[in-house]
Amino acid sequence: MMAIFSMRMQVIKRSAGRSSVAAAAYRAGEKLVDERQGITHDYSNRTGVEHSEILLPKDAPKWTVGIDRSALWNAVEAGEKRKDSQTARELRLTLPREIPPDQRIELVRDYVLRNFVSKGMIADVAWHNKVASDGLEQPHAHVMLTMRPAVEPGGWGQKVRHDWIACPQGRTHDDGRPIMIESNSQSWNSAEYYERCREDWENTANAALARVGSAERIDRRSLLERGLARMPEPALRLAYYLKDLRGALKERFGQFQMAKHYQAVESRAKAAFARMEEAPTRAGDAARNFQRFYDWFDRQLDRLAPPRDGPEREPPRSTTFDMER
């Protein structure tokens, strides 16, 4: 039997009009003031947040000890000067339902400490649970991570980066071009590092499933890599996202505008799924496109949720979806 593996990483960027303070308030279900922009983000009435906490490295500087969520992310925003700065990285983990609720917090905490906090990142973790498209619970965790290590006195160090260099073993492509590799596989932006984190979550969750006597297992490999041609339950997930979108649009717009936007998204989404299902020989591409679709929905739902106090964010310019973008 196979439980669902879902682990997504995204970067919160100012160039996309996003704020790490706003993201933290939404994930934790709290009221936070973005001091840089002078905007209050109030999500204190949000449901589904079961627990949240901040995890610090063992050698964290004194100014971070006991820091609260508001002080942390406002310090992050103050430390980034560019208008196109990347202010945080967010990881979203789906937890297997078979793991008992009283074990989920410690499971995620242990994983985050090993893979991220031990490298110098400060982690802000929120455990969520809501009803999934099949009517059962959907436990998951959002992990916001700093892009820089905290240093004394009261500041941030350099970002842990990597360069692309020619393979030291002299490997080349068929056309003679050198194969490029990462110069630092411990870089916080490294694809190799991220894949190791995916593998560790697979092993961590499967070990927890085994301990509770469950036969379910998660597998980080794609359907194509496992030799499976089926699509990842697109109809169920489409219905689930459309339900969430309808609620967000209803809160943000009037009845007429809500119906207009919702119908446009629904028709485009269904047409996109139909096109992909007509090309079964491209199962791998279809799976990736489905994931792009779900990621797009997540972004729109975040943008449609306005702060309760202060000026509202500008609504999305378009609520249609083009699978070719």
TrEMBL record:
Gene3D superfamilies: 3.30.930.30. The keyword Iron-sulfur does not apply. Pfam families: MobA_MobL (PF03389). Transmembrane segments: none annotated. InterPro entries: MobA_MobL. Residues 302-325 are annotated as: Disordered. Residues 18-233 form the MobA/MobL protein domain. It comes from the Bacteria. Keywords: Conjugation. NCBIfam families: MobQ (NF041496). Belongs to the MobA/MobL family. This is MobQ family relaxase. It comes from Sphingobium cyanobacteriorum.
